[in-house]
Amino acid sequence: MTSGSRRCYTNVPYEGGYTYTGDALSRMGTELFPLARAGVHRILIVLTDGRAQDSVSEPAEDLRDVGVHIISVGVGNADYHELEEIASDPDDDNVFTTSFDSVVNLAGSILEDVCKGENKVYVTEKLKKYQ
Q1: Are 95 and 80 in contact (CB under 8 A)?
Q2: Residue 124 pLDDT greater than 80, yes or no
């Protein structure tokens, strides 16, 4: 990750408020993934630092049912059980926790691999290095 993109990630202001992860997952299923090109890996990386104010189980299951591979990354005080509810199986390959400092380094690395079409094994191995 370049120093410019690192500054970009670290300078995003926190506006406070509630966490509606379930709603975000539902929107991914109705607004983003239906637009994906055929034959493209459907990978969703969910990054959260807390607990959702809404249910995540059904929206996450709906995404997995249509072939979306979900990796959940918890930062700080994220709810581990909720990360497991969101992620694809097996949890050992798809549920991660990390610190705020490490997630900045991780973001660019994940994006590079996903954009190159790397398979989930390579992405999850890279994630494990940042735990």
Answers
A1: yes
A2: no
